[in-house]
Automatic annotation (TrEMBL), chain A:
It is found in: Cytoplasm. Substrate-binding subunit (component A) of the Rab geranylgeranyltransferase (GGTase) complex. Binds unprenylated Rab proteins and presents the substrate peptide to the catalytic component B. The component A is thought to be regenerated by transferring its prenylated Rab back to the donor membrane. The keyword Nucleotidyltransferase does not apply. This is Rab proteins geranylgeranyltransferase component A. Belongs to the Rab GDI family. InterPro entries: FAD/NAD-bd_sf, GDP_dissociation_inhibitor, Rab_escort. The gene is Dwil\GK15875. Pfam families: GDI. One of its GO terms (cellular component) is Rab-protein geranylgeranyltransferase complex. One of its GO terms (biological process) is vesicle-mediated transport. It comes from Drosophila willistoni. Keywords: Cytoplasm, GTPase activation.
TrEMBL record, chain B:
It is found in: Cytoplasmic vesicle, Autophagosome membrane; Golgi apparatus, cis-Golgi network; Golgi apparatus, trans-Golgi network membrane; Lysosome. Its main location: membrane. GO terms for molecular function: G protein activity; GTP binding; metal ion binding. The small GTPases Rab are key regulators of intracellular membrane trafficking, from the formation of transport vesicles to their fusion with membranes. Rabs cycle between an inactive GDP-bound form and an active GTP-bound form that is able to recruit to membranes different sets of downstream effectors directly responsible for vesicle formation, movement, tethering and fusion. RAB30 is required for maintaining the structural integrity of the Golgi apparatus, possibly by mediating interactions with cytoplasmic scaffolding proteins. It comes from Drosophila willistoni (Fruit fly). It catalyses: GTP + H2O = GDP + phosphate + H(+). PANTHER family: RAS-RELATED PROTEIN RAB. Coiled coil: none annotated. One of its GO terms (biological process) is head involution. The gene is Dwil\GK14858. CDD domains: Rab30 (cd04114). It is a lipid-anchor. Its EC number is 3.6.5.2. This is Ras-related protein Rab-30.
């Protein structure tokens, strides 16, 4: 078999970040020929990957160019005293002991949690891409209550069992959540009329909830700020409630082995449908063939023809280079002990979510605690991912109001690192030929709604009449190399498939 | 509902053109595909086998062509129970690449994964790699070794049945361990179960798509849960 690339493609995708991978998979899925490249030797583009500890350190040390997404990187090792946890972990986590396990870490540049009934989960299920991934149900959604980290009751039974609320508060909270749940079904109900156009905080106050319940709801359930509107708050609360009871105790999931797995799942689907993958390959120049209107992509001495090109930030040399701006400030910490008490870290530590507020609720940060149950770190160690919208070019300063809330008592941090993720300033669509589309890189959000909607938008611009990631067939249904489906007749099937076929036929006759 | 006790994920790696897809298709479908095209449309194939009186479901994953430019996703290796590294006995370069593959396996696969080295295409009369050389390489790197011919159906059944038997043995000897639990994940609802469990979304998709659901399929099994990579 030739190791030469074909010369013409329907679509060339540069960068294997989440959005680009989503588009590549969608195009390949509807039969387009796709070449997917990345200048890096790993999947995930510049912002969406997961890394071993060694690899993360070298990324943070790397020299920055004007197209770099990761900047202002720094890391520090701290000396830590002996640890007393009931695990097989060494008694003392020295820098050497941790680096020896470097490959056991999957450290995300851009960690997220997924709503169990959210856009991404729905997309993964609808497209059958879910078979490439596993998830960990987030164990606790937490809140910071005057310096104490508490588990926010999510389900009905949580509300009844929680020790952090009084009986009266429990009733109030249940009543409030039920009201949110029913909101929208009756457009003319009193509340929705009375609070239209007002703030969510006002609504909460009118429900005469206690301060603790208010912060429960504002911090962790609705995840709102003081300026959020009533409608926004209700929507967010509903989003939270509708994801409950699907998997585990909270409405959230975290991908096993880190969020860097997710773009790879889309890439796998793209490849299964014939997409060609080349990592560590960069594009030197892109020009337009004025006759055929095709793009000429020169890639390591070879010229490829493409009808369309999709590029992640910083992957393609398009002039002038779009200026980058600070977008997300990140802190990544490794610790010997988890945040919060034993209750929220049963069995060696939970995968927990904590939303922190600062500056009177106008600024927020998301903290994701990962234990070894996430597959992202060795047993006995914990990762704290802190993410906040960038205010400046100094991630340490941006995160200080949040880290000071949770790390005051923790002397167990062995490794701390900070960096900023940059994104291109709004891409001038009309500055580019119509056949080139640029993705914008990660924005600050919980879940992947914005990224999916961008991928969906670009896909629709490329292929307006095609379905976005329809369900991929199960292995049982696959017909290989364009064989006539009847060739795969009952007798050539292994026994279990034959039985399934039989069942299917039975079902279909029953349904008729 | 299908009835099986264990579900094992087996992944194949090796250079393009060594016959990975042919091995899978020979085993799962009993046929040898003509033509030399790259693998398109094949995700994984499933076959239920019976070993020692137990029904075992094998989920056999192919590379989807990503090996051509050495761009296999790490996620491909995740939670594999066994890994088959294939070379072509009539093609020296495919053997010379084995150390590169081993490096990649070491980097991304579970360190306890069962590794099998397979020299394929024994039907060819232009052999370049003597059996003994293959055997020695396997021994050095702590792998099982077998030579096969997907074309002549030689040793193909044996390859997969031995893997199944070995994996059952492992699962039983580590009674109650993560591996055993993982392998037996078949019918267990992973929702809300033990502290260390992970979730495959497919269990929900099976529920969601009940109308067009066809008696089991992979939906239930794909939630192989391994607490952490070895």
């Amino acid at each position: 078999m030739s190791d030469e690339l074909p010369e013409a493609f329907d679509l060339v995708v540069m960068g294997t970040g989440f959005t680009e991978s989503c588009i590549a998979a969608a195009a390949s899925r509807i039969g387009k020929t796709v070449l997917h490249l990345d200048k890096n030797e790993y999947y995930g583009g510049d912002s969406w990957g997961s890394f071993s500890l060694d690899a993360l350190c070298s990324l943070l040390e790397k020299e920055v160019s004007e197209s770099s997404a990761l900047r202002n990187g720094s890391y520090t090792w701290h000396n830590v005293a002996a640890v007393d946890w009931d695990t097989d972990a060494p008694a003392v986590w020295t820098r050497e002991a941790i680096l020896a396990k470097s490959r056991r870490f999957n450290l995300d540049l851009c960690p997220r949690v997924l709503y169990a009934a959210g856009e991404l989960v729905q997309l993964l299920i609808r497209s059958n891409i879910c078979r490439y991934a596993e998830f960990r149900a987030v164990d606790h959604v937490c809140m910071n209550n005057n310096g104490e980290i508490l588990s926010v009751p999510c389900s009905r039974s949580d509300v009844f069992n929680t020790k952090i609320l009084t009986m009266v508060e429990k009733r109030l909270l249940m009543k409030f959540l039920m009201a949110c749940n029913d909101y929208g079904e009756d457009k003319c109900n009193e509340d929705s009329l009375a609070f239209r156009g007002r703030s969510f905080v006002e609504y909460l106050q009118a429900q005469r909830v206690t301060e603790k319940i208010a912060s429960c709801v504002m911090q962790s359930i609705a995840m709102c700020g003081p300026n959020s509107t009533f409608e926004e708050g209700m929507q967010r609360t509903q989003r939270f409630l509708s994801s409950l009871g699907r998997y585990g105790n909270t409405p959230f999931l975290f991908p096993m082995y880190g969020c860097g797995e997710l773009p790879q799942c889309f890439c796998r689907l793209c490849a299964v449908f014939g997409g060609i993958y080349c990592l560590k390959r960069s594009v030197d120049a892109v020009s337009m063939d004025s006759q055929s209107q095709e793009l000429l992509v020169s890639c390591e001495g070879k010229t490829l023809r493409a009808k369309h090109l999709v590029s992640g930030p910083g992957q393609v040399p398009i002039n002038p280079v779009t200026p980058m701006r600070p977008n997300i400030s990140r802190g990544l910490f490794i610790s010997c002990s988890p945040l919060g008490n034993e209750e929220i870290n049963k069995g060696g530590g939970g995968v927990n979510l904590l939303r922190l507020l600062a500056d009177g609720g106008t600024r927020e940060a998301i903290v994701i605690q990962l234990s070894h149950y996430s597959g992202a770190c060795p047993e006995g160690l914990y990762i704290f991912h802190i993410t906040t919208p960038a205010q400046s070019e100094d991630p340490i300063a941006d995160l200080a109001p949040f880290t000071s809330q949770i790390f005051q008592n923790i002397s167990q941090i062995v490794f701390s690192s900070h960096f900023t993720l940059y994104s291109p300033q709004s891409v001038e669509a009309n500055a580019l030929p119509l056949s080139i589309h640029c993705t914008s890189g990660p924005i600050y959000e919980i879940d992947y709604d914005a990224a999916i909607s961008e991928a969906h938008r670009i896909f629709k611009e490329l292929y307006p009449n095609e379905e976005f990631l329809p369900r991929a067939p199960d292995p049982e249904e696959i017909v290989i190399d364009g064989e006539d489906p009847s060739a795969l007749n009952e007798h050539s099937l292994p026994e279990d498939l034959r039985a399934q076929l039989h069942d299917m036929e039975l079902n279909s006759t029953e349904n008729q | 509902m299908e009835d099986y006790k264990f579900l094992f994920k087996i992944v194949l790696v090796g250079n393009a053109g060594v016959g990975k897809t042919c091995l899978v298709r020979r085993f799962t479908q009993g046929l040898f595909p003509p033509g030399q095209g790259a693998t398109i449309g094949v995700d994984f194939m499933i076959k239920t086998v019976e070993v020692e009186g137990e029904k075992i479901k094998l989920q056999i994953w192919d590379t989807a062509g990503q090996e051509r430019f050495r761009s296999i996703t790490q996620s491909y290796y995740r939670s594999a129970h066994a890994l088959i590294l294939v070379y072509d006995i009539s093609c020296q370069p495919t053997f010379d690449c084995l150390p590169d593959w081993l490096r990649e396996i070491q980097e991304y696969a579970n360190s306890k994964v069962l590794k099998i080295l397979v020299g394929n295409k024994t039907d060819r009369d232009d052999r370049e790699i003597p059996t003994q050389i293959g055997e020695e390489f396997a021994k050095q790197h702590d792998m099982y070794f077998l030579e096969t011919s997907a074309k002549e159906a030689e040793n193909v059944e044996r390859l997969f049945y031995e893997i199944a038997a070995e994996l059952i043995g492992q699962a039983r000897s580590k009674d109650g361990s993560a591996a055993a639990a993982a392998a037996a994940a078949a019918h267990r609802q992973s929702e809300g179960s033990g502290v260390g469990s992970s979730i495959g979304l497919a269990s929900l998709s099976a529920k969601a798509a009940q109308s067009n659901c066809c008696g089991g399929g992979v939906s239930n099994g794909s939630s192989t849960s391994q607490g952490h990579a070895g």
